[in-house]
Amino acid sequence: MFVDINTLKVQTESREQNLKTNFKTIFSLIISIVMITSLLFGKFFFKSTYLLKSFGELSVDPEIAFTNNKPTFLEFYAEWCEVCKEMAPQVSAFKDEYEKDINFVFLNVDNQKWGNYIQKFAVNGIPQVNLFDKKGNLISTFIGKQDEIKIRESIKNLEKENKPYEEIVNAEFSTIQENNNNEVNPRSHG
């Protein structure tokens, strides 16, 4: 049997060209799928991080909040805090629902500007939510991941007179500590 070397060479080159074309097509398809998926679902995946970043921008200044005769929702958070990210949509919903009647103050524990508030309210776990009545009296402190119903109940009770103080701590929270330079730094997160 006689095999023509030129014919084999042409067939081999043709197969290689087809493989290269197929590879390029598959690679382009995969890249397209990844790009389309990230465009469609990127906002969903990064929503909590976006919310946390926007909290500081949407915050009422604490000095104004404690003097304008409205109840205050004060949250201490950090953008790296996984529990803060998890609770961000819930907190955002509270803000949307109650912002006409309640001051919403968001203080990032990584911002040294808020060090005096971090010390004043003994923040060592985040998220920490402090609820104040319209006179500026601390009514409730929530540390860590919280049940929406419990926070909502406490928000509704802000208008009542003679409320006893309550502190609710959940084991799911991120810790912060002060260093020797009076700077607050994250130590660990949960």
Explain how this protein is built:
- This protein has 190 residues and is α/β, with parallel strands linked by helices.
- The chain folds into two domains: 1-45; 47-188, Glutaredoxin (3-Layer(aba) Sandwich).
- The protein has helices at residues 5-45, 47-58, 62-65, 82-98, 115-120, 148-156, and strands at 72-77, 103-108, 125-126, 128-132, 138-143, 166-169, 174-178, 184-188.
- The strands form two sheets. A five-stranded mixed sheet has the order 2-1-4-5-6.
- Strand 7 (174-178) and strand 8 form a beta hairpin.
- The radius of gyration is 27 Å and the shape is rod-shaped.
Tell me the radius of gyration.
Answer: 27 Å
Oligomer: single chain
Q: What is the spatial order of strands in the main beta sheet?
A: 2-1-4-5-6
Could you spell the SSE succession in H and E letters?
HHHEHEHEEEHEEE
Roughly what fraction of the amino acids lie in strands?
Answer: 15-25%
| CATH top level class name of the largest domain | Alpha Beta
Anisotropy-based shape: rod-shaped
Structural class assignment: alpha/beta
**DSSP summary: helix tally:** 6
What topology emerges from the helices and strands here?
Layout: H1 5-45, H2 47-58, H3 62-65, E1 72-77, H4 82-98, E2 103-108, H5 115-120, E3 125-126, E4 128-132, E5 138-143, H6 148-156, E6 166-169, E7 174-178, E8 184-188
Parallel strand pairs: 1-2, 5-6
Antiparallel strand pairs: 1-4, 3-7, 4-5, 7-8
Helix pairs in contact: 2-4
